[in-house]
Model the fold of this input.
Amino acid sequence: MTKLKQLIQVITRAHIYIQTHNYPDQDALATAYGLQFLLESQDINSTICYSGQIDKYNTLNMVELLKISPLNMEEVTFTKEDEVILVDSQQGNVNVKSFEGRKIACIDHHPKQDTKGYLFYDIRSEIGACSTIIGEYFMENKLKPSKEVATALLYGIKLDTDNLTKRVSVHDVEMFAYLFKNADLKILKKLESSSLRKADLNAYQEAMRNLRIYGRVGIARIGDDCSEAIIGSISDFLLSLSEVDVTLVYSYRVGGLKFSIRSEAGIIDAGKIIKEALTDLGDGGGHATMAAGFIPNLNTSQEINQAASLVEQRVLSIINKVRKDIFLMDEL
Done:
């Protein structure tokens, strides 16, 4: 039995909700959009929903050009009987707001968390993009995606694997080739040519002004109220410096500190580092090469500065310990 058929078996209602992580990116929305199309082929209606906002320019373009219709959860009234499928996220993560409704299923490519409560889950951390998993559902069930869905999924894979160069698996490459044949390449080109707004450049300027390098770790605070997308983009940008192989970038937003961490050092697991660094402060996690975290409820400048300083110290301390342990092992 295919994964899609297993999922269909646990759905009992004629309408379900597909929930992404907060502040959804292209891969999350593409995954939700593809799943919505698949469910419609099985006569199940669905609504894509999210918390926070869609705050990256090319993500907004993607929603408009590909006719995706996500709803902010503030626009939705949930009941206890509603059924929810989580995509590109997992229950209990700090970047997934919990609402009424039964979380019956989860489709994700992040490290597996607690799966209790799901009636179905397909969580594969070895996959580079969640869009790849949905692409496989189309292929294994011999269902052809629409041009818009194929374009969205292809774009999700491109973005989450950095054009098939990071965290990429054989499955990602296979699905990229499969979706490429059905995608609208003109729309794809439009999406790739519009990723920044003029206002975003201020954050890059702050990053260059505030960048500090400790060993091979680059750390920068990039001002306040930066979007999650820009925080991540700047973290990637700073990683291109020859002097660093780990970056920590953060901004104060929505009542707390949002962190993005990137690692090109094979021994440094970004997800584990940020999770440990935020112990008793907030929560974080992600992949070995890219992860994020958040500390909520910081209301004064003193609280913000103290928390930022503590996280910086912890990250550097953890990284130094990992490198020292590896060095000692090599000496044995």
Observations:
- The mean pLDDT is 92.
- The domain at 3-192 is CATH 3.90.1640.10 (inorganic pyrophosphatase (n-terminal core)).
